[in-house]
């Protein structure tokens, strides 16, 4: 084969291989990671969300990978003491990605509405920065709202106080940063202090770094996909029965045959694995609809149903809720999407027992299975 032909050769993957790439990239095979930092380094971002029918997303995402040995305090320690993770834009990120993130912050350009609001509140912006400079680390409620113009809040994401909105936008520019949390409230400081000593990186290099890290987390993704943001990172591959143009992580391809086997994994609805809905349908034949924002009468699987992965297929959806006063995890239903055999059902039940044990509560099935 000529050098040119060899360069243009594209590896063909079966659907089983493609799914295995995804499952392994997301640390959901039989070989579990050791700690939260290892998880973040591989899956790249850990979504933060307070919705906690069972546990907040950032905690469930970690438990789904690590299992019984994960303790919730490990995350706080990694962020606030060891500084091996950092919070930005509603997610925890590995510190190894900090330089690329900061480079992107410095070139961030807002859309017209946000840019106009910032321009109209130039004095407010200066007041927020001055307060942080003078007093150091603060939560939003400790910073006065001196805004000149209120943000239009049709979506209802922000209250009438404008400080939170200003801090969010300043964080996208790197002018402020998050150094920790008091409960669910973020603790803010000046970006020049939070990001002191971060190496310089130009925007083009930063973009390439982030695209490669996203592909590492994905394993395989449609090229230039707006859902995954991998651009043209990695190498081209084809997938059996799919007409899509795919990109795969070359490091993952090299170890594809080293298969440790599968397991059962219960996934939080905000797990990054689930974000790329078109890929879920294309590779896993799974159409996931989060029913959180549907009227109760229209829900089929439950308010916050957690998908259950068995090996490399989505086999069920878990409708469950933690009853804190009674210290009990109540399983309303395990909706089987395909018939589970006796061994698979026992594996699912064992994972549910492990989940309850991790939460430190009992386990109750609301209906006999």
Question: If you had to describe this structure to a student in words, what would you say it looks like?
Answer:
The chain is of the alpha+beta class and 369 residues long. It has a domain at 14-96 and 203-365. Helix content is 37%, strand content 19%. It contains 14 helices and 15 strands. Helix 6 packs across helix 11 (203-218).
Order of helices and strands: HEHHEHHEEHHHEHEEHHEEEHEHEEEHE
- Structure annotation, total helices: 14
Low-confidence stretches: 1-6
Structural class: alpha+beta
Mean pLDDT: 94
Order of strands across the main sheet: 11-12-13-14-15
Instruction: Describe the sheet with the most strands.
Output: 5 strands, mixed
Gap between N and C termini, in Å?
58 Å
Radius of gyration: 22 Å
Question: Topology of this protein?
Answer:
Elements lengths: L2 H6 L2 E3 L1 H11 L10 H8 L2 E2 L9 H10 L6 H9 L3 E4 L2 E4 L3 H9 L5 H9 L1 H14 L2 E2 L23 H10 L3 E7 L2 E6 H4 L8 H16 L1 E3 L12 E5 L6 E3 L1 H5 L9 E3 L10 H8 L21 E5 L2 E11 L4 E9 L5 H18 L2 E4 L4
Parallel strand pairs: 1-9, 14-15
Antiparallel strand pairs: 2-4, 3-4, 5-7, 6-7, 8-10, 9-10, 11-12, 12-13, 13-14
Helix pairs in contact: 6-11
Short description:
The chain has 369 residues and is an alpha+beta fold. It is built from 14 helices and 15 strands. The strands form four sheets. The protein has a five-stranded mixed beta sheet with strand order 11-12-13-14-15, covered by helices on one side. A four-stranded mixed beta sheet has the order 1-9-10-8.
């Amino acid at each position: 084969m000529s050098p040119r032909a060899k360069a243009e050769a594209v590896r063909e993957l079966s659907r089983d291989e493609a799914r295995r790439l995804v499952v392994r990239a997301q640390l959901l095979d039989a070989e579990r990671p050791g700690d939260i930092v290892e998880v973040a380094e591989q899956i790249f971002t850990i979504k933060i969300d307070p919705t906690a029918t069972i546990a907040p997303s950032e905690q469930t995402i970690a438990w789904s990978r690590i299992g019984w040995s994960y303790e919730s305090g490990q995350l706080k320690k990694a962020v606030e003491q060891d500084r091996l993770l950092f919070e930005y834009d509603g997610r925890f990120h590995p510190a190894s990605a900090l330089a690329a993130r900061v480079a992107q912050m410095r070139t961030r350009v807002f859309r017209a509405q946000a840019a106009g609001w910032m321009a109209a509140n130039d004095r407010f912006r200066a007041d927020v920065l001055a307060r942080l400079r003078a007093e150091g680390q603060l939560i939003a409620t400790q910073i006065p709202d001196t805004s000149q113009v209120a943000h239009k809040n049709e979506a209802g994401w922000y209250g009438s106080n404008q400080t939170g909105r200003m801090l969010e936008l300043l964080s996208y520019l790197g002018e402020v940063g998050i150094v920790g949390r008091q409960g669910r409230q973020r603790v803010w400081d000046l970006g020049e202090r939070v990001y002191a000593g971060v190496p310089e990186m130009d925007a083009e290099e930063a973009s390439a770094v982030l695209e490669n890290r996203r592909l590492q987390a994905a394993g395989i993704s449609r090229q230039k996909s707006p859902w995954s943001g991998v651009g043209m990172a990695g190498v081209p591959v084809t997938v059996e029965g799919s007409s899509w143009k795919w990109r795969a992580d070359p490091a993952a391809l090299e170890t594809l045959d080293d298969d440790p086997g599968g397991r059962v994994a219960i996934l939080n609805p905000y797990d990054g694995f689930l974000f790329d809905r078109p890929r879920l349908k294309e590779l896993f034949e799974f159409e996931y609809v989060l029913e959180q924002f549907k009227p109760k009468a229209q829900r089929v699987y439950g308010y916050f149903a957690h998908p259950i992965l068995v090996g490399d297929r989505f086999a069920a959806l878990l409708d469950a809720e933690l009853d804190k006063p009674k210290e009990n995890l109540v399983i309303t239903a395990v909706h089987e999407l395909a018939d589970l055999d006796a061994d698979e059902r026992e594996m699912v039940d064992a994972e549910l027992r492990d989940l309850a044990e991790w939460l430190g509560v009992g386990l109750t099935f609301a209906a006999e299975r």
